[in-house]
Amino acid sequence: MAVRKQKAKLSVNIDHVATLRQARKTPFPDVVEAARAAEKAGAAGITVHLRVDRRHIQDADVAALRPAVKGKLNVEMSISEEMVDVALRTKPDQVTLVPERPEEVTTEGGLNLILYGRRIAHVAQRLSKAGIAVSLFVDPDPAQVAYLSNLSEAGVTGFEVNTDLYTRAKTAAAVKKELKLLTEMVEMGVGEGFHAYAGHGLTAQNVGPVAAIAGIEELNIGHSIVARSVLVGLPAAIKEMLAAMAG
To answer: I need a surface site. Which of 20, 25, 47, 225 has the fewest CB within 10 A?
Structure first.
């Protein structure tokens, strides 16, 4: 299958808008208002991570965002039964299944598709039957990406490749190595018919080369945008990111 060459879109993760709200348990800042502002500024969609510990995004946020988001609402969540029930109630456009540990500051790596393939397939089937697109967050590991083909019949249609190692690379050689691996993983997944997404740790300073990888349809970026918005405002932060993605 030919690699898609369309320009990568931006899905803004607004988790940390909710983090700021939860710090004082106030009604503000409002995640729905943030989502609307993000889309108005050029975001193609909104991403949120509903964690089991509810440290930022709450169930009520997902329910409120469902009718408010005009583009794609992508909800990241674990494969726990509790999370599946929320997804089936709210029916976002897409669910991205991610690993989750209570003690982590943020998602630390991709799903182990080989180890948890049976459970992932069961969850994906249920979500897919409800009309929800299913994507999997995976590390840029050939074995993991190759395993995607075993989950297509379960309803998995996409994968988000973890860009963490790329964003942590310190030398030009290391950056080149990680970009090559990301490119190869995208080519492999797209070649098997899956939609390719990418994200984790991306900033306006490092996003350009990832956005330029042929086949990546969407980048999911949150923390750096929300952090930048504290200084320049959310619309300006998003426009800066879009400009960086365009090169």
So the answer is: 25
pTM flag (> 0.85): yes
pLDDT for 35-66, tens place per residue? 999 999 999 999 999 999 999 999 999 999 99
Rounded to whole angstroms, the Cα distance separating 131 from 87 reads 11
The answer to whether the bond into 29 is cis (omega within 30° of 0) is yes
Alpha helices in 170-222 (DSSP H): 172-191, 207-211
Return the pLDDT at 28: 96
Q: What is the pLDDT of residues 92-119, one digit of tens each?
A: 999 999 997 655 556 668 999 999 999 9
The residues assigned a catalytic role are 49, 76, 200
Answer CATH for 9-246 from 3.40.50.800, 3.30.70.120, 1.20.1300.10, 3.20.20.70: 3.20.20.70
Query: Distance between CA atoms of 191 and 189, rounded to whole angstroms?
Result: 5
pLDDT digit string, tens, across residues 138-182: 999 999 999 999 999 999 999 999 999 999 999 999 999 999 999
> In the predicted model, what is the mean pLDDT of the chain?
94
Question: In DSSP terms, which residues pair with 218 in a beta bridge?
Answer: 9, 197
In what helix (H) or strand (E) does residue 217 lie, and over which residues does it extend? strand 216-221
The H-or-E segment that residue 238 falls in is helix 234-246
Q: 31-40 and 234-246 helices cross at what angle (nearest 10)?
A: 40
Q: By the 8 A CB rule, do 32 and 66 touch?
A: no
Cα first-last separation, the chain: 27
